[in-house]
Amino acid sequence: MSELSDGWEMVIGLEVHVELATKSKLFCGCSNSFGDQPNTNVCPTCLGLPGSLPVVNAQAVQYAMTLGRAIGCTVSPSVFARKNYFYPDMPKDYQTTQYDQPTNEDGSLELPDGTVIGIERAHIEEDTGKSTHLGGGGRIHDATATLVDYNRAGVPLVEVVTRPELTSADEARAYVAELRDILIATGVSDARMEEGSMRVDANVSVRPTGDAELRTRCEIKNINSLRSLGRAINYEARRHVALYEAGEAPSQETRHWDEDGGRSTSGRSKEDADDYRYFACPDLPPLAPTPAELAAIDEAMPVLPGRRRSALASAAGVSMAETSLAVERGLDTFALDAIAAGGQGISVMKHVDQNLADGVGVMTAESFAALVALEADGALSATQVKTVLYEMVASGGQPADIAASMGFEAMDNSELESLLDQLIADNPDEWARFAEGDSKVQGFFVGQIMKATQGKADGKIVNQLMSAKAKA
Amino acid sequence: MSTPTAIEIAAQVRSGSQSATAALESSLSDIAERDRELHSFLHLTEDRARAQAAAVDAVVAAGNDPGPLAGVPIALKDNMCTRGAPTTCSSKMLEGWKPPYDATVVSRLEAAGALVVGKTNLDEFAMGSSTENSAFGPTRNPHDPSRVPGGSSGGSAAAVGAGLVPVSLGSDTGGSIRQPASLCGVVGVKPTYGAVSRYGLIAFASSLDQIGPFATTVGDAALVLDAISGHDPLDATSIPAAIPTVSSALTNGVAGKRIGIIDELMGEGIDEDVLRQTELAAEAFRSAGATVERVSIPATIYGLAAYYLIAPAEASSNLARYDGVRYGARVDGGNVEAMNIATRTAGFGDEVKRRIMLGTYALSSGYYDAYYGKAQRVRSLIAAEFATAYEQFDLLLSPTSPSTAFELGAKSDPMALYMCDVCTIPSNLVGHPAMSVPFGSGDDGLPIGVQILAPMLHEPAMFAAAAVLEAAQKGSS
């Protein structure tokens, strides 16, 4: 579904910065933790003091390669490079990153709906410190003072760069959500957007639908949530279309997303961007993963969300997209076990999605399968099934035993019908309103019947009986 | 002036016949008396040295091993970090800055019982060949105070040459240990790249910088080198393997060794007396049983050009951090960028600015391939040619410096100064060890050194050859 006026399509590329969940920083032994007192996790190396040297954190490299393998990248020998520019929160006035020889290249990520997004690269780099600009407009150039916290300087990042292949805000959100699930599944990052351990920059451009050309893009920064990501992309794309339709064109620049104002504002123009003068960092030897190291990474790789979704989809007979929630909740193994134990796939998935948001407690997959079978046989009403299900989650046990102890048996319709007739006789005004089409009183009758039967009645059947009587 | 060697001092201190404190006070009084004219020291670290001497004396008194450098006073080029003591790189940019940590070499020296007496003068950020580029005034040559000591480690070379300390450390990026050693008549060693930790050495050009010793004898240089070399987990470019010791190889001689004289460094641009001494060194090797022949390494002549792209390129990045934000000099401006510019304009001297500009240009988009990229290819070519030469030869020989020490102010043209390093630069580009050994004097009576070059980690053979020249010198004097 396009958010744009007819004849236009979006072209989106995402750059996601992921903080790796290492104990220490990328090039020194300082703690990599969020929220500590400013400038307490620092040393000569991450402060860039004269004479200090970097030594790469092996765990960070392993995490980076794990992420690379998880998103199907080729993991190659790689070289750290220096990206030179002046900024107060960057202690050495260069960032140690990777340039022409990144650790991970040419991967892809499959979204729950089956769309495949190409990944250009996923390279390792160090984070900068964090600046707080006081006075002025909150930017460095008109600040009266800038406070810098170097706790974040040198924190290990992987920057995952997609090809410009995403076509909508929804797709962008789905991509980021999927990447987050992979990061959490592999333990590579805690991937918390709100804490900044996962940061998304969106490169957005538009073009006439069906064109192959890539038009001028703008890079949107300062996106702090999935919701912001969607809003920022739609805003930016519409802004471009409006410019083109007015006979103008956007200029290539970095823009900041203003969540409160719901708009992006112009940042630095890319035309007068720094020449970063990249060159191989002479302080760091190249990284050269051995085949054995890569094999060990593959062996330790957990089953990833995509594979889990496809396994569940084929077992349950539902679409990949319909398995997302179960996988996200980590209930896919339970669902597969229940289906293997004879539970009907679609019913299993319905309960997993609708009734098991808080987990399965002490319930076994076998007893859950038995409950799904009782429901399919019509032996229990939907309401009764739910009651039994919650009892099983809380205390375990077999569904037939629980249903019997609760006195649940399917009521026959004649019993319900006579109860309903009595209710109609006792509440003639309400019944008249229902018969005239006021559906608000329907709940009153269902509620009374449930009360009278202590929840044993099947609400659906009560509704059917009421409709039939009203028409009669 | 016959000051005791480091080996002699250590032996006395270890045996208890002289205290470390006495050795230190002797050195400190020499410095107080005689360094006013030379200006080889920028600052002294007397308190730290006295505390260390007392600690060494206590170890000796307790009957324990005080280490191979027990009680030996040593000076450090002022680009090596010393905790709590000024470390300026002879730059106004770092005036007043006191590092919160020690360089690895400092810890290793003290662990070996050495006493760090002070920090020596250098060309600002180690950029220069005369120590005239110091923001705190030049150092003078102990053999003739109207002459330069060479550079950039001129202070460390002069301090040893004058006998103020028996040994010192310098750093060598393109010849900054060997050239001043030659001009001051002392031994100077640039070890294999990665043999000595660079942690705490303030970077000039990271892929070329290496710390090494100055000494009056080959044996003293070996003693110090053995104490400071070895893998350091804090330096990712340090060699992760055992480094061969050199002290045990000093008497190995050169009998049967094949030594090549580098053709390209034996002609134009090198003074006659320097060529003569190099030929005499070759004779000394022949007399000791080596075969000596000429060898052509044609790419050598491109070393200087490649070096003056690679070293400034790395320096332009390494020196970016001096921005006025965190430490050192700061000159206020209207905003951050103006403050950065004002600070760097005031804080750096002309030569440093020249090299930052050269390096920035060499790395710029559109010029990278033509300059920095091409220089790296030249570097590979030189390495390949040296590898070929070492198939036929165990060691190589050349002059160290094209001339003896020149007058202060004599080389005001940067290019004339750059030419001082033509013989020493190739070893830095390929990472091989090389050392300068005093070998007679020039027509002006000033010292001349010859350079012995060796393949990676072949320091033992290089030191054995240096000992042969040293012995030949003693025999002839």
In words, what does this structure look like?
The complex is a heterodimer of chains A (about 475) and B (about 475). By secondary structure, chain A is an alpha+beta fold. Chain A contains 15 helices and 14 strands. Chain A has 3 domains: about 10-300, no CATH class; about 305-405, no CATH class; about 415-470, Arc Repressor Mutant, subunit A. Chain A has helices spanning about 60-70, 170-185, 225-245, 290-300, 305-315, 325-330, 330-340, 345-355, 365-375, 380-395, 400-405, 415-425, 430-435, 440-455, 460-470, and strands at about 10-20, 75, 80-85, 95-100, 105-110, 115-125, 130-135, 145-150, 155-160, 200-210, 220-225, 255-260, 265-270, 280. In chain A, α2 (about 170-185) packs antiparallel against α3 (about 225-245) and α12 (about 415-425) crosses α14 (about 440-455). By secondary structure, chain B is of the alpha/beta class. Chain B has helices at about 5-15, 20-40, 45-60, 105-110, 155-160, 180-185, 220-230, 270-285, 305-320, 335-345, 350-365, 370-390, 415-420, 425-430, 460-475, and strands at about 40-45, 75, 115-120, 165-170, 185-190, 210-215, 260, 290-295, 395-400, 435-440, 445-455. Chain B has an 11-stranded mixed sheet with strand order 1-3-2-4-6-5-10-11-9-7-8, with helices on both faces. In chain B, β7, α8 and β8 form a beta-alpha-beta unit. In chain B, α2 (about 20-40) runs antiparallel to α3, α9 (about 305-320) packs across α11 and α9 crosses α12. The interface of A and B includes residues 51, 53 and 284 of A.
Summed up:
The complex is a heterodimer of chains A (472) and B (477). Chain A is α+β, with helices and mostly antiparallel strands and 472 residues long. Chain A has 15 helices and 14 strands.
